[in-house]
Structure formats: structure tokens, C-alpha cells
Amino acid sequence: MHMNILNLFKKKDAVPLKLVCFDLDNTLCEYDAAEAETEAYIADMIYADFLQHKKHPARAKKAKTVRQSKSSTALTLSAILKAFNESKHAHMHKDLEPEQFSRGLWLAETLQKLPVTITPARIKTLSAAYEKAYWDFLIPKLKLYPHTLETLQALKNKGIITACLTDSDGEKGIKIRRMVYLGLDKYLDFIITTDDTKKNKPAIENWEYLLKAVGVLGKECMMVGDHPDIDLLVPKGLGFRTVWTKEHFNTSTHFKYVDHEIHHISDVEKIAKKYA
Ligand SMILES: [Mg+2]
Hints:
Layout: H1 2-13, E1 19-22, E2 29-30, H2 32-51, H3 57-63, E3 66-67, E4 74-75, H4 77-91, H5 103-113, H6 120-138, E5 143-144, H7 148-157, E6 161-166, H8 172-181, E7 190-193, H9 205-214, E8 221-225, H10 228-237, E9 241-245, E10 260-262, H11 267-274
Parallel strand pairs: 1-6, 1-8, 6-7, 8-9, 9-10
Antiparallel strand pairs: 2-5, 3-4
Helix pairs in contact: 2-4, 2-6, 4-5, 5-6, 7-11
Bound molecules: magnesium ion.
């Protein structure tokens, strides 16, 4: 009798899966490699722009340093990259406001930190131009992980709703442009960027917004992401099954709130089958 009651509970808990929600960067597409290349490209661009003020740009470039008239500190490519990374790490996964993830903001902060003389108006103009150059360069470098689209289609064929919940790039249009470039928009029933909720992950409002928009319960959903504390911890509390994808970065670390670990995005299909 006792066993029967337990089985009954098990059956009751095993709610059929209705929705799978994915993080985007380093979950559906390889992002970090494109980002690193882009940061180097933009640092080169900034360096070259400030070299133009020198009398002998070719010679100065060879020396890889530019001495500014009002500063004894050298402007180097590594100083530019260091300043940019300081800004990025001060904001990324720390600030809840979507606009804090704007590359334009990080680039403006980068310019402010450099040993160069520059007016606020010039910072505004340059950071906007660099932000545009940043995304124009990065987007064509993005690559979906193998079998991403096939996996999404296989889920849809099973009648499972597909969704993506991704942090802002400072404004919604930029993230959507990236997803359209990758062709993901055709395979996702719901695309939510944190611009929609005005709070970046891991704010609970994002998953609450998703559940409300689709009209499903947390226990009918699965969340897939590469960043457990950002992507999985909070939805687990709402009843989601959680899948940690280690396609981008393998580690032997495990977390209690992670139900499944995978190394290829195509493994989601097998896990979804178990809950069908
Ligand atoms: Mg990610």
C-alpha cells in the first residue's frame, strides 16, 4: 500500500513536458570565440584612431605605443583591452538593468579610462560608432552548435513549445538581429530578451514572464543553459527541469539544482523524450 502511494506521487509529479526554454550564448551558439575576436578588432580600431593624431603613425604603430601630450602613460593595445574588460566584468552578470549590457556603454567607459585627451561629446560619437562596428564585425562570426536547428525542429515535431530567454545586449533589436542572422527566429515559438522585463537574468521575473506569456506551469517546462547560477538556479525554484549544457566549457563541477548535464545540444531531444 505504501509503495502504491509513492508510485501515485511519482506519476503525479511526472507532468508531461510542454516547453523547452534555451539560453542563447554558449548554449545554442558559440559566442566567446566571436567575442574575443571582436574585442581585439575594436581595440585595434581605437588604437589606430588615436594614432592618427601622431606625426608618424607608421613608426608609432610599429612601436605599439602612443604617448599623449597631456599624459606620460602609454596607450597600448593591451591597455585598451584591459580597460574594456574591466568595464565588461563590472557589468556582465552583475547589473540587473538591461541597458548596462550595452557595448556602447562599455566602450564609452573604456575611452574614459584611456590616457588620452577626449571630450564627452567625442566619447559619445566614438562609442556609438564603435558599438556599431562591434556588432557588424561580431554577428557574422557567430556559429550555431552542430544540430541546433535540427534539435529545435525535433522538439517542435513532438509538439513541444520552443523558447529562448536571453540577456539584453543593451537594446532588444541587437539580440533579435543576432538571432535572425542565425536563423533561430524560425525555430523558436517565444523569444524573450531581458529588455522585455527590464531585469537581466537571473531575475525571477524573466521566467515568470515566460510562463505567463505561454500559459504553462514551471513543472511543465525545461530550462537549458551554460551558466548554472544565471540560467538554472531560479527556474529550478519555479519547478523547471534543468539542463546544464557543457558544450562550451566542460567542468567536473555539479550542482544539486541541475537535473541533467549534456555535452551536445542535440542531447536535449533525448532528455525531452524521457518527459514526454
Ligand atoms: Mg549563456
